Amino acid sequence: MAHQPGCALHRRLHASLDAADLPAVGVIRRRLRAALEHWGVAPELADTAELLASELVTNALVHTGRGAVFDAVLTEASRLRVEVQDGAGQVPSRRPASETATSGRGLLLVESLADDWGVQLRADGKTTWFELSAL
Hints:
disordered N terminus, Heat Shock Protein 90
């Protein structure tokens, strides 16, 4: 997993993730938490961002079988945008999960907790993203 640290000026965290590197999900969570603390983001927002980011990264790695690119940017307008790009062209779908299901709740969490979210199809795959207000 490659990493470029975000600096205070740009407030960006970037990482490339290998398809077989599922432990990278935990690494991304910790790096995002550290970046958000460094940027002065409230702990409550950091909790939500960490949860939602791990959902997007997990979906990209598990459901596509391909690597992914992670980006988190805190804009000057105090919005946190997290994007996960992968090489699969299928749009993720929300599906109901039974009480005993071990998957199927990730996008429901993103939809419930993010201020905005979506999927953008690209020629080489898709970008799944969410935004949170950091105010």
